[in-house]
Structures are given as C-alpha cells and as structure tokens.
Amino acid sequence: MALIINPGSRIGEPSAGWTNTEATARGEAERWLTRIHADGMTDVELLDGSTEHEGRWVFSFRHKVTGTVVKLETHGIDGMAAYEKEHIFSPRIYWNESSTSNPELEHFAAPGFVALRTFAAEDAPGRWTALRAEITRDAAIEQELGDGYSDMDTDPSWDSANKHWGRAGALREVLAAMAGMEGAR
Questions:
Q1: At 58, is the secondary structure helix, strand, or coil?
Q2: What is the pLDDT of residues 2-22, one digit of tens each?
C-alpha cells in the first residue's frame, strides 16, 4: 500500500508554457475580493502591495471597521495546463493559513468580539422607493381588512376593524411625511 502525503504544493521555478507573476496573482486576489463583497462583507478591502513566499503571492485583506487583517496566499500561474504537466500536485491557495477555508465574517472580527452581519446601505432614492412601495401595499391591505371586518356585529370584529383601520391611517401618515421630506430636499 502506497501512502502519499501532500504537504502543500511547491510552486517551483517557471518554465516553458507558464509563468508565476504578481499581476496574475493580484487578479486572483481581486476575484476573491469581489466574491467577499458579493457574500455581504462589504467593509473588506484589498490592501496595496504583496510579498512573495515560497512561490506564492501574499495579499492582505483588511476590515475597514475592525482593522483585522487576513492573508491570502495565491499563485500567479498563467499557464495551468503546462504547470500541471510538470507537477504532481496542483498549486494550493491559502486563505487565513488554510487550504480548505473560505472567507467568513468571523475571520474579520476584532479579538474578543463575535461577528454578526454587515450589509451595504442602499442609496437614499432607492431606499425611499422600496419603502414607499412596501408601506403603500401594507396600507391597502390594512384598509381592506378593516373595511371587511367592520360589517360584523361582534365586539372582537369591531376591535379588529378599528385596529386595522388605525394601521392604514398611520401608514398613510408615514407616506405623507416621506413625501414632505423628499419635497424639502
């Protein structure tokens, strides 16, 4: 029985058909940053510069709020097929010193803190438009429920009708206030 242990992958010196450049590696780091942002970690930035370590390029990602820095070690190989013909193992990429890890918000938590969630705020016009649509829909539903229940004679139905009618009125007041605030800009 043969036992093969892969202690990582040694990049080695470039040869015919492939090179290992910082520019190609930075492109890979930028793809990681794009994916990090798409996963909702919008306060993470890729810092300028890199260092070389055993054929890998080391890039630093910093969380703008916590200041925590996490490293990505990646290759800059541009001819993977040629590289794989010469080497037994494919080159590994290390995130936070692990070849099997993916970026998680917990990696950027400050010492002693637990990560909850980050998000990107919408621009003001987009936020108002979405909110107005939601409140208008809710006001219509509340008014319909209130009107439907007002025909019943039992005390609980009157309570429900008044509750819904009050919500519809309150939601209409919020819409009017929003319109006034937008007009004031």
A1: strand
A2: 655 555 567 878 888 899 999
The rounded distance, in Å, linking the Cα atoms of 110 and 138 is: 40
Give tens-digit pLDDT for 90-134: 888 899 988 888 898 888 888 777 666 555 555 556 666 666 677
Model pLDDT, residue 183: 67
User: Which residue, 60, 95, 89, 64, is CA-closest to 77?
Assistant: 89
What angle do the packed helices 124-149 and 155-184 form, to 10 degrees?
A: 160
53/178 Cα distance (integer angstroms)? 56
How far, in Å, CA of 141 to CA of 147, rounded? Answer: 10
Query: Counting beta carbons within 10 angstroms of the beta carbon of residue 36, is it exposed (0 to 12), middle (13 to 18) or buried (19 or more)?
Result: buried
Q: What is the pTM of this model?
A: 0.58
Taken in order 38, 39, 41, 47, the sign of the CA dihedral is negative
- Find, among 96, 105, 45, 89, the residue nearest to 74 by Cα: 96
DSSP code at position 120: P
Q: What does the alpha-carbon distance between residue 76 and residue 70 come to, in Å, rounded to a whole number?
A: 19
pLDDT range class, residue 148, cuts 50, 70, 90: very low
Give residue for tokens 């013909």.
Answer: 85
